Amino acid sequence: MPEEKENKNKYDQRLLTDLKEYVEKRIKLFSLTIAEQLSLMMALTIQKFTGIALLTGAMFFVSIGLAFFIGELLDSLSAGFLIVSVPLFIVGFIFFRKKSTRFTEHFQAKFIEKTIYRFEKEDKKSSMRGE
Fold it and tell me: Which of 7, 27, 103, 125 reaches 20 to 30 Å from 63, CA-CA?
């Protein structure tokens, strides 16, 4: 009897150790998945920001060139700059006043979706290895 009880205690202890190890590995996997998603989003954000900065610079020079061209056609440099700046001002004002909740919600939903997908994917891989 005492030997049977000792074997059961060893089994219970091993089960608790395995369970603790499993939970620790799941937490580590989740944190690595989050870190991977954050680094991916940061890389994409830097890429998008660089593209936007280059497009903004190009738009700036095109606007100045267009303003000079229209100014020459109208024989008034200031009128050329005014004509070019009005549409830019209107578009800028619209973007400034518009709320970006749709973009923010979309961004958060994509992040959560990717994180859960990767977490489930790793869970399937680990369960297949265990079988």
Answer: 103
Taking phi first (over 0 means left), then psi (-120 to 50 degrees means alpha), and beta for anything else, what does residue 109 get? Answer: alpha
In a 13 Å sphere around the CA of 61, the CA atoms on its Cβ side amount to: 5
Residues 6+ apart with CB under 8 A from 29: 119, 122
**DSSP structural state of residue 102:** H
Q: How many CA atoms lie within 13 A of 104 on its CB side?
A: 4
Residue 84 CB partners (closer than 8 Å, separation 6+): 63, 66, 67, 70
For the chain, give every domain's residue range.
2-122
Weakest-pLDDT range from 26-35, 57-66, 79-88: 26-35
Which two three-digit tokens encode residue 107? 């961004």
